[in-house]
Design goal:
alpha+beta; three-stranded antiparallel sheet; 6 helices; ATPase_NBD; Heat shock protein 12A
Length: 180
């Protein structure tokens, strides 16, 4: 079998390709079934988005509980955090526009921290892993709803965009967050 034939055989194991666009200001995802690669579906219904407005992306914001557990991402995170009483919000960990920390940190490691709005620090790897987990769950739920049966992670080829200007450590960091 030629290499191209082997690649085609491997490709057919995936039923869908999901591409996550993890942006500085906003993020989103799109997917395409391998049987109809020219038909690209873009996520347009984000929890907490403005009523009656169709948005392809949601803000790149994440909210962790005071116990440092994932609470929400995007519009839902932004709205929940801003609706908290100020005396309560100081206990929550809210991050926005945190992606560029990977590009601007000169000595980026897997131990690099991000600072929440309340000044508390959390490992950047944990924040990025939570965000990618959110997108994974959203995409699998949407695919399962559309298919009428549970979609498995193994049926998906995952793609995560990274800026071309990023140095290798930032790209490797994103890869590690995806593995996590």
């Amino acid at each position: 079998m030629k290499d191209s034939d082997a690649e085609d055989a491997v490709e057919q194991l995936f039923l869908v390709v999901v591409a996550i666009d993890f942006g500085t200001t906003s993020s989103g995802y799109a997917y395409s079934f391998t049987k109809e690669p020219e038909c690209i579906h873009v996520m347009r219904r984000w929890e907490g988005g403005d009523p009656g407005v169709s948005n392809q992306k949601t803000p790149t914001t994440i909210l962790l509980t005071p116990e440092r557990k994932f609470h929400s991402f995007g519009y839902a995170a932004r709205d929940f955090y801003h609706d908290l009483d100020p005396s309560e919000s100081k206990h929550w960990l809210y991050f926005e526009k945190f992606k560029m920390k990977l590009h601007t940190t000169s000595n980026l490691t897997m131990e690099t921290d991000l600072t929440a709005a309340n000044g508390k620090k959390v490992k950047a790897l944990e924040i990025f892993a939570y965000a990618l987990q959110f997108f994974k769950e959203q995409a699998l739920k949407e695919l399962s709803d559309q298919a009428g049966s549970d979609f498995e992670n193994t049926e998906v080829r995952w793609v995560i965009t990274v800026p071309a200007i990023w140095k290798q450590p930032a790209k490797q960091f994103m890869r590690q967050a995806a593995y996590k």
